[in-house]
Amino acid sequence: MYGLKLLIExxxxxxxxxxxxxxxVVMPNxxxxxxxxxxxxxxxxxxxxxxxxxxxxxxxxxPFIMTGGGALLRGGTLRKLQGSLETLSERSxxxxxxxxxxxxxxxxxxxxxxxxxxAHEAFQQxxxxxxxxxxxxxCHPVRLEAAQQRMIxxxxxxxxxxxxxxxxxxxxxxLYSNPNMVGMCRRHRLKNxxxxxxxx
Length: 200
Fold this sequence. Notes:
alpha+beta; four-stranded mixed β-sheet; about 30% helix; disordered C terminus
């Protein structure tokens, strides 16, 4: 949590923050495309965003985004925690949250601020089990740098017709599932897609 405090201090006006692990591969073209669509076609101006590979299966832990697969947050969303990050850092080191993973603490803290985790299949925590494709934004784990570069080259296929607003919008909970921990969204079942609204 102390790292998040430093992140906000160094980039206090960022429109978005992206949290990921060292062995997370990010597809730059898809990432830029998603940011453009979210900002210009999907999110209302003051809407929160906390999206990625959602996990709602940990007992006693509110639903959260697994940061190995990448957690994308709107700037204003993460900055809601700015005044409490020092206390959260201390609790994580020596207090009641000392056995919590970072992504657990982040999800719990944001929920207390009224922000809910939203799922998206373009962020994959367990890409070694499948699910990573040329429509992905981030894939984890890929530990070797050479393998990371190879994956970016293989999956960097521009598909503007498919990387549209329906693709970029977070997945409604009723359509999201995690078979074998691979995030999937059954978007084909969603009729009359209203991409300007994020499910609350």
